[in-house]
Design goal:
Chain lengths: 84, 154
């Protein structure tokens, strides 16, 4: 699957790289060194690695939720989701 | 879905059909279920990239190279235990608890070969299973990751 994805990205002309291990740590490195403006991800795994700004769950219209690390401390409410 | 995203989808559908045809013509074609999953995943990624490019955002896609070594050992060890004892995960978790905390009876514990083995033998078996799984993963990936990594880093 990874090989097909790489071939497709080359054809479309999208920049890509294969991280040594998990992509989350590599994305955090890019974010901390200001090589990227924002990290788009489906989960919050990049936040503990130190990403300052993460854009979650981007849909087909480009909408999603942005979380900035500097504002996490201002969160006063925790929404609980029932299991199952 | 607006007209813009229909246009994005149709522009990529041509590319995806060409890619699917390319896969069929290969000597070792993918199984049908895998191909469907692949097409869905590809269309998902390419649509997002196209949307970003149309919004004047330059996308940089970072692909997972390999799981962290610490995670690999834990996950494969757990899978190895499941295969070894031929039981479900709940039973394994119950057997891992000590007897004083409501764990298994002694007779049940003796049936599990995990307890009968020494720690060193257990570790060797796990590492052997991990290396076999890694070898299988590299064969299925076809060496695509290594090629792109060497392209990026000379």
């Amino acid at each position: 699957m990874r090989k097909v994805l790489v071939e497709a990205l080359k054809e479309v002309g999208v920049n890509f790289m294969v991280s040594p291990y998990e992509a989350d740590a590599q994305l955090a490195y890019f974010a901390q060194n200001a090589l990227v403006d924002v990290v788009i991800s489906e989960d919050g795994d990049t936040l503990p690695y130190g990403c300052a700004r993460v854009f979650f769950k981007m849909d087909n219209c480009g909408r999603g939720e942005e979380i900035q690390q500097q504002f996490i401390g201002n969160c006063q409410e925790v929404r609980e989701r029932s299991a199952g | 879905m607006s007209w813009l995203h229909k246009a994005i989808h149709s522009s990529h559908s041509k590319h995806l059909f060409a890619l699917a045809h390319h896969q069929h013509t290969k000597a070792n074609p993918l199984p049908p279920l895998h191909e469907n999953t692949l097409t869905f995943f590809l269309s998902y990624v390419l649509n997002k990239c196209e949307l970003l490019k149309r919004s004047n955002v330059v996308p940089l896609l970072v692909i997972d190279g390999a799981p962290l070594p610490s995670k690999v050992r834990l996950e494969f060890e757990f899978i190895y235990f499941c295969n070894l004892t031929k039981t479900n995960t709940h039973t394994i978790q119950a057997n891992d608890r000590p007897e004083e905390e409501g764990g298994p009876q002694a007779g049940v514990r003796e049936r599990l070969p995990v307890r009968a083995e020494g720690r060193r033998q257990r570790r060797e078996k796990v590492l052997r299973a991990v290396s076999q799984c890694h070898a299988g993963d590299e064969e299925s990936a076809g060496g695509g990751a290594e090629g792109s990594w060497s392209e990026l880093h000379g």
